[in-house]
Amino acid sequence: DVQNNPKPITSMKVYVDGVQKASSNGPGITAQLTFPKNSTHVVWVKAWDTAGKIYAAYQTYYAQ
Asked: Residue 21: which residues within 8 A CB-CB, separation 6 or more?
């Protein structure tokens, strides 16, 4: 979820290594992600508000 945003969130998307894996039409999103053993992946979560502002966060995952 996006917090402290001044305008309502209209959509969210999850990307793994630049490929979209999930989307929602609201202020929250849930995505089940699985990765192969011994791999590294960058996961981005992006959100858009009613004013068109983009909020984004990423995390690198190391699967062992």
From this structure: 14, 15, 31, 33
User: For the chain, what percent of residues have pLDDT higher than 90?
Assistant: 88
Query: What does DSSP say about strands 9-16 and 19-24: parallel, antiparallel, or unpaired?
Result: antiparallel
Burial class (CB in 10 A: 0-12, 13-18, 19+), 47: buried
**How far is 61 from 64, CA to CA, in rounded Å?**
10
Residue 1 has pLDDT above 80, yes or no: no
- Tokens 């966060």 belong to 57
Q: What is the largest CA-CA distance in the chain?
A: 41
